[in-house]
Amino acid sequence: MKHLALTLFAFLASTLPSMAGSIRFGELDDNYVAALAVIMVFGLPVFIVALVLYFAYKNKQAKYKLASEALAAGKEIPQELFKGNVKKENDETLTKGIKNVFLGIGLGVFLWVLTYEQGIAAIGFLIFCVGLGQVVTAYVTRPKENNTHTEHPSNTDIDKQ
Q: What region, left, alpha or beta, does residue 26 occupy, with left being phi > 0 and alpha being psi -120 to 50 degrees?
């Protein structure tokens, strides 16, 4: 990442002085437009991914700091701090899957009515299958609930006392 930034800086430092005297409003050389387009197309997604990873790292570091402070104070670390909420994630997957199922059906019908071609309507079927997979995944990975009920003592237990 550091080398990429240095290379980009060297490129800009070498081209900007020669470019400054020749640019007039509304006139750009095709090479400069192409270079700017390449930088934007490849640089912007890399920057966004780097930003997301940075904030995820900072969030994880904040959790570790909170846990170390809790240990230093002699308190227990809550298990929920490092475990994600499985039920919430499962519900989100189920919701997203249902949305994709109906989006696929709607898109398939729309494209079929619009173009009268089954090949184009297969795009909707693809999204339908993705949604169906998400729904199945949500049902298969749902957390199991404990159904242990406290049983009342039977009459024979009362008779023994």
A: left
pLDDT digits (tens, 9 = 90+) for 67-116: 888 888 888 877 776 666 667 788 889 999 999 999 999 999 999 999 98
CA distance 106 to 42: 34
- 8 A C-beta contact, residue 43 and residue 12: no
Separation CA 145–CA 86 (nearest Å): 12
Q: For residue 76, give the DSSP letter.
A: P
For the CA atoms of the chain, what is the radius of gyration? 29
Four-residue CA torsion sign, 89, 94, 95, 96: positive
- Nearest CA among 132, 127, 134, 94 for reference residue 109: 127
How many structural domains comprise the chain? Answer: 2
pTM of the model: 0.44
Domain that holds residue 125: 84-140
* Residue-level pLDDT at 71: 86
Q: Does residue 149 form part of some domain?
A: no
